[in-house]
Write a structure and sequence with these properties.
Distance between the termini: 79 Å
Keywords: ATP-binding, DNA-binding, Nucleotide-binding, Transcription, Transcription regulation
Helix content: 25-40%
GO molecular function: ATP binding; sequence-specific DNA binding
Shape: globular
Protein name: Arginine utilization regulatory protein
Strand order of the largest sheet: 2-1-5-4-3
InterPro entries: AAA+_ATPase, AAA_lid_NorR, Homeodomain-like_sf, HTH_Fis, P-loop_NTPase, Sigma_54_int, Sigma_54_int_dom_ATP-bd_1, Sigma_54_int_dom_ATP-bd_2
Radius of gyration: 28 Å
Strand content: 15-25%
Number of domains: 4
CATH topology of the largest domain: Rossmann fold
Largest sheet: 5 strands, antiparallel
GO biological process, one term: regulation of DNA-templated transcription
CATH superfamily of the largest domain: P-loop containing nucleotide triphosphate hydrolases
Number of helices: 17
Number of strands: 17
CATH class of the largest domain: Alpha Beta
CATH architecture of the largest domain: 3-Layer(aba) Sandwich
C-alpha cells in the first residue's frame, strides 16, 4: 500500500477527538491554505481544514473501522476554491489493542488541465468483497450488521439495539417505509443471535393468497382437503431458528388469532390434524405502516401487536438521513461495477446534486434501482457517471412525483365526512363495537354517534352492542 505513493507531500496525525497532534508538509504547494508558520497543532482537524467533515475524512473513517484506507484519487477543495487531487494512505494508530488516533500520508497528483469541480470520486475502499458479493443461501440469513451501510447516528443506534435484541428470543417488530431495509435488520438479528446456524425462513404475507396462508404457515395433514398431503408449515421448517413475517398487516384477522395462539403456546397444529407439535421459533415481523395505525385501521389485532411488539425497531426513511445517500451511491456503484463489468470511478457533480436533493419515496431500494439503471447506460469505456446516464430515470421519477402532486382535491364536506366515518370505525374497532364506549372515546353524545353509524352504514360492518 505504501509503495503506491513513492514520495509524500504531507503527513497529518490526529487523536480520537480529531485534534491535530502533528502535521508537516514537504511540498510548499500542498495545502497552501495552511501557512507554513501557522500553528495548527492542537486545533480540530475540521477547523484547520473546513472542507472536511467526519463523512469525508479518511482519518476519521480508519479510526471508526480500524482498517487502513488507500485512495488512488481524492478531491480536495482548497481555500481559493481550486480543486486538487491527492493520493492518500490513512492508517489507524493502535496502542495495547486500542485505537488512539490515525495518521495520513498524502501526495498531490493534481492535473491542471482537468475541468475544475466537475466530477467527484467514487469511494469503494470502505466496502469489502464480502459486502459486494452475490449472496444466495436458501433458508439462511445472508445479511449481517456490516451490510447495513450508514453513517447516520439514529441508524447506528438501531444497529446497537440489534446486538442487544439478538441476545434473547423475544419477538421483534420492525416498521419503516418500503425500501428502508427492514429485511436486512431481520437477517442481522438472526445472524447476531445464538440461532445463527439454524434456519432463517422469510415469508411476505402480502404475496400469498388468503386461501393458502394457513396451510403454508401451519402445515397440512394428508386428506384434510382435496389434494392435501402431509407437509410441514413454515413454523416447523424454522424450528430452532427464526421466522420473518413481512407485511404482517396483510394477514387475515382470523389467522392472526391462530398466530397469537402459536406464539403463546409454542405449539402448532397442522391444518386438519389433531396432533399438536412443539416448536421453538423466534418470530420477527414487519410492516411498512406504523403498527398503531395498523391497529386503528383494523389490519392488525391489538392483542397480537402487544405480543409481537415486545421489542421494536423504527427505521427512518432515507430522506431523513441524507448523509447516507453519498455513502450508498458509492456502495451501489461499486456493486454494479462488479456485476456489470464497468469501471465507474467518478460521478458528475450535477448527478450527485440531484441524488442528494431528491426525496426518495422508495428509499434505499429506489436509489439502488436508479444507480443500476445509470450503470447500465454507461459505456464500458466510461469512468464517470454523467447526468445523461440518469436523465431518463430522473424524468420518470419526477413524473411520478408530479402524478402524486396532481391528485384531485375533493369538496371539503366530502373530506370531512370521510374523516368522520374513519374515526368512528376506528373507535368501534378499539371498543369491540361498543357504542357507548365509542361515544365517550369520541367525546360526542351516544345518540349522535348512533345516528352517524346509521348514516354511514357502519352498522352493516360491525356486530356492535349498546
Amino acid at each position: 500500500m505504501l509503495d503506491q505513493l513513492r514520495y509524500i507531500d504531507g503527513i497529518t496525525i490526529i487523536d480520537t477527538s480529531g485534534t491535530i497532534l502533528f502535521t508537516v508538509k514537504f511540498n510548499p504547494r500542498f495545502h497552501e491554505e495552511i501557512d507554513e508558520n501557522e500553528k495548527i497543532i492542537g486545533l480540530s482537524l475540521f477547523s484547520a481544514f473546513p472542507m472536511l467533515d467526519e463523512r469525508s475524512s479518511t482519518l476519521f473513517k480508519v479510526m471508526k473501522t480500524g482498517k487502513p484506507i488507500y485512495r488512488a484519487k481524492q478531491n480536495i477543495v482548497d481555500f481559493r476554491g481550486i480543486e486538487k487531487e491527492t493520493t492518500n494512505v490513512s492508517l489507524p494508530i493502535k496502542a495495547h489493542g486500542k485505537i488512539i488516533g490515525s495518521i495520513e500520508l498524502s501526495k498531490d497528483i493534481s492535473d491542471e488541465d482537468r475541468p475544475l469541480n466537475s466530477v467527484i470520486e467514487i469511494d469503494s475502499s470502505s466496502f469489502n468483497s464480502k459486502q459486494l458479493k452475490t449472496k444466495i443461501q436458501p433458508e439462511r440469513a445472508v445479511y449481517f450488521l456490516e451490510d447495513i451501510i450508514t453513517v447516520d447516528e439514529e441508524m447506528n443506534q438501531l444497529k446497537e439495539s440489534v446486538k442487544k435484541f439478538a441476545k434473547g428470543d423475544s419477538p421483534v417488530f420492525i416498521y419503516g417505509e418500503t425500501g428502508t431495509g427492514k429485511e436486512l435488520f431481520a437477517h442481522a438479528i438472526h445472524n447476531e443471535s445464538e440461532r445463527s446456524t439454524k434456519p432463517f425462513i422469510t415469508q411476505n404475507c402480502a404475496a400469498l393468497p388468503e386461501s393458502l396462508i394457513e396451510s403454508i404457515l401451519f402445515g397440512t395433514k394428508r386428506g384434510s382437503f382435496t389434494g392435501a398431503e402431509d407437509n410441514p408449515g413454515l413454523f416447523e421448517l424454522a424450528n430452532g431458528g427464526t421466522l420473518f413475517l413481512d407485511e404482517i398487516n396483510s394477514m387475515p384477522i382470523h389467522l392472526q388469532a391462530k398466530l397469537l395462539r402459536v406464539l403463546e403456546d409454542d405449539c402448532v397444529r397442522r391444518l386438519g390434524d389433531k396432533l399438536v407439535r412443539a416448536v421453538n421459533v423466534r418470530v420477527i415481523t414487519a410492516t411498512n405502516v406504523h403498527p398503531a395505525q395498523c391497529v386503528l385501521d383494523g389490519k392488525l389485532r391489538q392483542d397480537l401487536y402487544y405480543r409481537l411488539g415486545v421489542m421494536t425497531l423504527a427505521i427512518p426513511p432515507l430522506r431523513e438521513r441524507r448523509e447516507d445517500i453519498r455513502l450508498l451511491v458509492d456502495y451501489f456503484v461499486s456493486k454494479f461495477n462488479k456485476s456489470h463489468k464497468k469501471n465507474i470511478v467518478h460521478i458528475s457533480r450535477d448527478s450527485l446534486e440531484f441524488l442528494l436533493s431528491y426525496d426518495w419515496p422508495g428509499n434505499v431500494r429506489e436509489l439502488e434501482n436508479v444507480i443500476e439503471y445509470a450503470i447500465n447506460q454507461a459505456d464500458a469505456c466510461d469512468d464517470t457517471l454523467q447526468y445523461n446516464h440518469l436523465e431518463q430515470q430522473i424524468k420518470h421519477l419526477m413524473g411520478i412525483q408530479q402524478s402524486f402532486s396532481s391528485i384531485k382535491i375533493k369538496p371539503l364536506k366530502d373530506e370531512i365526512a370521510n374523516l368522520e366515518k374513519t374515526r368512528i370505525e376506528q373507535a368501534m374497532i378499539l371498543t369491540s363495537g361498543n357504542v357507548s364506549k365509542s361515544a365517550r372515546l369520541l367525546e360526542i353524545p351516544r345518540q349522535t354517534l348512533q345516528r352517524k353509524i346509521n348514516q354511514y352504514g357502519i352498522n352493516n360492518r360491525f356486530n356492535y352492542h349498546q
